[in-house]
């Protein structure tokens, strides 16, 4: 009896050990279903002092830190061509040249003791001062900022140091092939215009302290200031500090800012800069759009499909993934804040495949014009642009300063709030329409920086004029004889 029971138990145990349990199959990543990303913009408070000083505020007490950004209307597009580089030198000396009663060394020592970070930069349309500091140092930080705006020292020794650095940068301007390509493309696209002008040694050597003072006196006035603050401050306290240090500065009226006319678009051509290196830097482009263009959103989608979507773009998929000719290839529209800027496409490839890559890039641009994109491409581009939008706002200051910047450049009031829905509304027909309107293969300025002896003969297959550029001389081209 016992033996029979043991036999039955052994059989049941053996059956249990040999019975297979079917595990659920894992879901593939592309089968996962997520709710749409929702992003609501934090409320940014706006104030304006009696003298016109504009203030954007966002309190955030998560960390005991404060971020300050100040914009001043002006910028390098206002520099006379005979003083190209003035704004760049101005920003460098404003940052390092001391302010108020503090010498450069004293100011640097104080900022270091506060663990504060100060930087000054210039762009085409503005000057920007950024200051990051601990909340306990807010009062002193505002005092330093006010001194920079009202009483910059422009120390002579720091001026010469900044000048030396600019001259060294000019001396080494032909070291990096990618930088050469970008410079030549701008010069070819904007001849005789600030967008196509770069500092020259003879000009930088002539700039002096009076030039910096005149620039500061012309543009630095309270009704030309835009100020963003975020972090662990008290709103009333910060506004009181601003009024105390800047409120007695009388409004002088916004300085007149004139925009130089754009030159006519040149015909398509190849600019060849010879440099004995094992690969070629390729950059091509033509005039694009500014922010006021009604087709801005459709162009964002079209460019994502063409070359702006990384491995999801046609250029990367065809030229790198399918053919293995490049490591990276891309395209983008530089959206001009006021004047139209460039559509640019670029890559690097080994010398022997230079013309093949250029040909493929031009063919893919032409394909965008000639053929509608697929529904799959459109959906991927729209979803990627919509979902990545939130990552432009990683912290409180990115939101605050972005809101200020959009007002500074006169974007629509609801630009941020409606961005995603306008991207979502782009259709296949929109993409092809804007490709036909804003992509011009016949106007591409194609810059090649590399060992031209290997591929110069093949360039004639492109059916474009080919011009050589002498890198050791000021920009000037000469046509290669047929």
Descriptive report:
It contains 16 helices and 13 strands. By secondary structure, the protein is an alpha+beta fold. It folds into 2 domains: 202 residues, Cytochrome Bc1 Complex, Chain A, domain 1, CATH 3.30.830.10; 211 residues, 2-Layer Sandwich (Cytochrome Bc1 Complex, Chain A, domain 1), CATH 3.30.830.10. The protein has a 7-stranded mixed β-sheet, with helices on both faces. Strands 1-2-6-3-5-4 form a 6-stranded mixed β-sheet, sandwiched between helices. α10 packs across α16 and α11 runs antiparallel to α12.
CATH topology of the largest domain: Cytochrome Bc1 Complex, Chain A, domain 1
User: Main β-sheet: number of strands, strand sense, barrel status?
Assistant: 7 strands, mixed
Low-pLDDT stretches are: 1-6, 8-19, 477-482
What characteristic shape results from the CA principal axes?
globular
**Oligomer type:** single chain
Strand order in space, largest sheet: 9-10-8-11-7-12-13
Radius of gyration: 29 Å
Order of helices and strands: HEEEHHEEHHHHHEHEEHHEEHHHHHEEE
CATH superfamily of the largest domain: Metalloenzyme, LuxS/M16 peptidase-like
**How far apart lie the N and C ends?**
108 Å
Average pLDDT over all residues: 91
Can you give the helix content as a percent range? Answer: 40-55%
Strand content: 15-25%
Structural class: alpha+beta
- Reading off the top of the CATH hierarchy, the class of the largest domain is best stated as Alpha Beta
Number of strands: 13
Q: Could you say what the CATH architecture of the largest domain is? A: 2-Layer Sandwich
């Amino acid at each position: 009896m016992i033996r029979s029971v043991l036999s039955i138990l052994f059989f049941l145990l053996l059956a249990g050990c040999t019975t297979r349990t079917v595990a659920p199959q894992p879901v593939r990543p592309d089968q996962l279903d997520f709710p749409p990303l929702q992003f609501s913009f934090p409320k940014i408070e706006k104030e304006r002092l009696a003298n016109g000083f504009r203030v954007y505020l966002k309190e955030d007490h998560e960390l005991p830190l404060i971020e300050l950004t100040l914009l001043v209307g002006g910028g390098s597009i206002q520099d006379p061509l005979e003083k190209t580089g003035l704004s760049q030198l101005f920003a460098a000396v404003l940052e390092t040249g001391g302010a108020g009663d503090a010498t450069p060394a004293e100011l640097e020592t104080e900022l270091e003791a506060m663990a504060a970070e100060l930087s000054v930069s210039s762009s085409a349309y503005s000057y920007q001062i950024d200051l990051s500091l601990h909340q306990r140092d807010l009062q002193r930080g505002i005092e330093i900022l006010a001194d920079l705006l009202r009483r910059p020292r422009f120390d002579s020794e720091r001026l010469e140091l900044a000048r030396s650095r600019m001259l060294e940068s000019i001396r080494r301007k032909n070291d990096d092939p990618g930088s050469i390509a970008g410079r030549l493309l701008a010069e070819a696209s904007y001849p005789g215009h600030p967008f196509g002008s770069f500092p020259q040694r003879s000009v930088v050597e002539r700039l002096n302290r009076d030039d910096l003072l005149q620039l500061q006196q012309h543009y630095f006035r309270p009704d030309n200031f835009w100020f963003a603050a975020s972090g662990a401050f008290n709103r009333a306290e910060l506004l009181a500090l601003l009024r105390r240090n800047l409120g007695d500065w009388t409004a002088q009226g916004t300085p007149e800012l004139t925009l130089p006319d754009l030159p006519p678009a040149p015909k398509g051509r190849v600019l060849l800069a010879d440099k004995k290196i094992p690969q070629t830097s390729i950059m091509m482009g033509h005039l694009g759009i500014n922010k006021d263009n009604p087709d801005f959103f459709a162009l964002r989608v079209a460019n994502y499909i063409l070359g702006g979507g990384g491995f999801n773009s046609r250029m990367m998929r065809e030229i790198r993934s399918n053919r293995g000719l490049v490591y990276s290839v891309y395209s983008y529209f530089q959206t001009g804040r006021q004047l139209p800027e460039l559509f640019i496409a670029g890559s690097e490839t080994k010398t022997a495949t230079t013309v093949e890559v250029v040909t493929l890039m031009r063919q893919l641009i032409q394909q965008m014009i000639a053929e509608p994109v697929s529904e799959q491409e459109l959906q991927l581009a729209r979803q990627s642009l919509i979902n990545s939008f939130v990552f432009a706002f990683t912290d409180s200051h990115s939101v605050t300063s972005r809101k200020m910047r959009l007002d500074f450049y006169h974007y629509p009031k609801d630009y941020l709030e409606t961005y995603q829905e306008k991207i979502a509304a782009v259709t296949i027909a929109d993409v092809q329409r804007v490709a036909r309107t804003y992509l011009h293969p016949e106007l591409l300025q194609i810059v090649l920086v590399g060992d031209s002896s290997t591929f110069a003969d093949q360039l004639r297959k492109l059916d474009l004029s080919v011009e050589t550029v002498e890198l050791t001389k000021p920009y000037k081209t000469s046509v290669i004889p047929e």
